[in-house]
Amino acid sequence: MKFLLIMHSNPQIWDALTEEERTEVMSGHGAFMETVTKSGELISTAALADPSQSAVVRVRAGVPAVTDGPYLEAKEFLGGYYLVECESRERAVELAALIPDAGVAGLGIEVRPVVFAAGR
């Protein structure tokens, strides 16, 4: 089964961390990627830019209209994800608990089953 392990970011929480805590979170991602790569469970991962760099495209009467900024204004935003393939939801939850953001107060990892994916 495929699962998207979604990391939601909150700049206020990140800014409240000490430099040492931020370094620990970042190095923890390296360790997590090594673990799921060795186990063969990692399909892909991506860290996303700040939502201020995004654009929303809507097509009306065949004409695209582009709005700068995120789709929704919120203090939390999608910061990145890990796409994994594992045997069960329980294993996906185990993997999510290994992602360092899960251990930061005010943050968490959303585990969502993938219904359809092209490719692997």
TrEMBL record:
InterPro entries: Dimeric_a/b-barrel (IPR011008), YCII (IPR005545). Residues 1-113 form the YCII-related domain. It comes from the Bacteria. Pfam families: YCII (PF03795). Belongs to the YciI family. This is Uncharacterized protein conserved in bacteria.
